[in-house]
Amino acid sequence: MSNSIESRLRRARQTRAKIAELKVVRLAVHRSNSHIYAQLIDGSSSKVLASASTLEPELRKELPNGGTVTAAAVVGKRVAEKARGLGIETVAFDRSGFKYHGRVKALADAARENGLKF
């Protein structure tokens, strides 16, 4: 593994350890070159409650490319709607060691605008 990947995973471990202490639902984000994924994970049992990604068939139809800021905003909106459907309002944001910039920031902003608090 390269140093940048190890550094990102180390940052992710530190963040997850802190969130685990809080025992709250976490909004975990993963970003690849061509897609972005978001999951709501229960703080006590580590079960996935809801997820959204640019790989979902409905989103594939409306988005020409899953690796854009626009696509990330759509995924953020979608995961926030699913969270509200489950009665979840407050989450801890887990950016998985990625910089809070670009697509990760777009997803977070869209989730906030659609009712999630973090």
From TrEMBL:
Q: Recorded GO terms, molecular function?
A: 5S rRNA binding; structural constituent of ribosome
SUPFAM superfamilies found in the cross-reference section: Translational machinery components
Among the record's GO biological process terms, what is one? translation
Can you quote a single GO CC term? cytosolic large ribosomal subunit
Q: Could you tell me which InterPro entries the record lists for this protein? A: Ribosomal_L18, Ribosomal_uL18_bac-type, Ribosomal_uL18_bac/plant/anim
Keywords (A to Z) from UniProt: Ribonucleoprotein, Ribosomal protein, RNA-binding, rRNA-binding
Q: What family does this chain come from, according to its entry?
A: Belongs to the universal ribosomal protein uL18 family.
Subunit structure of this entry?
A: Part of the 50S ribosomal subunit; part of the 5S rRNA/L5/L18/L25 subcomplex. Contacts the 5S and 23S rRNAs.
Descriptive protein name: Large ribosomal subunit protein uL18
